[in-house]
Amino acid sequence: MRRSVLVGTGSALPKKVVTNSELAQRVDTSDEWIVERTGITQRYIADEGETTSSLATDAARRAIEAAGFEPASIDLIVLATATPDQTFPATATIVQHNLGCGGGIAFDVAAVCSGFLYALGVADSMLRTGMAKRAVVIGSETFSRILDWEDRTTCVLFGDGAGAVVLEAQEQAEGETPRGVLATKLHADGAHNQLLFVDGGPSTTGTVGQLRMKGREVFRHAVVNLADVLNEVLESEGLGTADIDWLVPHQANARILDGTAKKLGLPPAKVVKTVDQHANTSAASVPLALDQAVRDGRIKAGDLVVLEAMGGGFTWGASLLRI
Ligand code: UT7
């Protein structure tokens, strides 16, 4: 049986850190409110010259190095983003050129904060069906460019960054403990697309637009949808919460992470949390957190890891991997 095995991770953050107190000088907010309601203490914000493609390229390069591969051997790049460099071409093609691995497949996926889960699902399907052999799956965002910096209800919540994984199609013998992506479950419900959206776009306003969110309602849906999809992906493999070594969730709000873990009966020590440092980096948040936990030695070969995310659309999903 052919499976997509995770062989490398990488991430990249902009140079500039912006603290809650710095934001409190721009809008009517406080470090206390942001920490208490979200768990966020700081975020990284891209400077001029730092773009979705430059962050994605750095993250991908680190993941490819960790895998020990030559960039030229990568034949598939799937990049999840809601903040592409340009409306077209796909930012993945810019990254492909930067990495020097032209000729393979490269495209973007738009599923906002769930983008990395969607990208992983697509790449896994393509690897298992033999369309490609080695994939880089990236989540990269510069949300700072679509924030309304006058709106305290949204501008304090987001940050910029990128994370990447390298997947390789490997044949596994029957009876062997399966490694790699074991299952992915994805969902969308467009009935809620006015709860979290950008108020512009090429075919409507001809502008980029700015992010708008009804946070309280998104929060309510997030805890329910995430717990449901986590149970769904585990049940599909005949597993339960007790089997999980690590949960790597989308980093939107520490209260959502805690609420989801509690609903599942998962000890907080098994949840990778980076929201305090990175804030919500949309499609980048899961691979950024995954890379951090792999590099600091928490996530090891053989661990059973669940990734999950929920975002605009609504879209949500979860993926189960044996490292
Ligand atoms: O990544 C995609 C998924 N996104 C999410 O998962 C985000 C989900 N939502 C959330 O994380 C939370 O709902 C928020 C962090 C956005 C808001 O927290 P909340 O506890 O739901 O607060 P709230 O929206 O109910 O607002 C409470 C109060 C309001 O004042 P009043 O109406 O009670 O007087 C807000 O105006 O807090 C006020 N407020 C602020 N105060 C200080 C809102 N933003 C701020 C702020 N600083 N930055």
List its traits.
323 residues; alpha/beta; Peroxisomal Thiolase, Chain A, domain 1; 2 domains; four-stranded mixed beta sheet; globular
Outline of the structure:
The protein is of the alpha/beta class and 323 residues long.
List the SSEs and their pairings.
Blueprint (H helix, E strand, L loop, with lengths): L1 E11 L3 E4 H5 L6 H8 L3 E4 L6 H16 L8 E5 L10 H9 L5 E5 L5 H14 L5 E9 L9 H4 L4 E12 L8 E9 L7 E3 L12 E3 L1 H22 L9 E4 L4 H11 L10 H4 L6 H11 L8 E8 L3 E8 L1
Parallel strand pairs: 4-5, 4-6, 11-12
Antiparallel strand pairs: 1-7, 2-3, 6-7, 8-13, 9-10, 12-13
Bound molecules: oxa(dethia)-CoA.
The site of oxa(dethia)-CoA (UT7) has 20 residues, from helix 2, helix 6, helix 7 and strand 12.
Walk me through what this model shows.
There is one protein chain. With 323 residues, this protein is an alpha/beta fold. It has 2 domains: 2-171, 3-Layer(aba) Sandwich (Peroxisomal Thiolase, Chain A, domain 1); 180-322, Peroxisomal Thiolase, Chain A, domain 1 (3-Layer(aba) Sandwich), CATH 3.40.47. The protein is 32% helix and 26% strand. The chain has 10 helices and 13 strands. It has helices spanning 20-24, 31-38, 52-67, 91-99, 115-128, 152-155, 215-236, 254-264, 275-278, 285-295; strands at 2-12, 16-19, 42-45, 76-80, 105-109, 134-142, 160-171, 180-188, 196-198, 211-213, 246-249, 304-311, 315-322. It has a 5-stranded mixed β-sheet, with helices on both faces. Strand 12 and strand 13 (315-322) form a beta hairpin. It is globular and about 60 Å long. 51% of the residues are buried. The mean pLDDT is 97. Bound molecules: oxa(dethia)-CoA. Oxa(dethia)-CoA binds at residues 29, 33, 37-38, 113, 152-153, 156-157, 215-216, 218-219, 222, 252-253, 256, 280, 310-311.
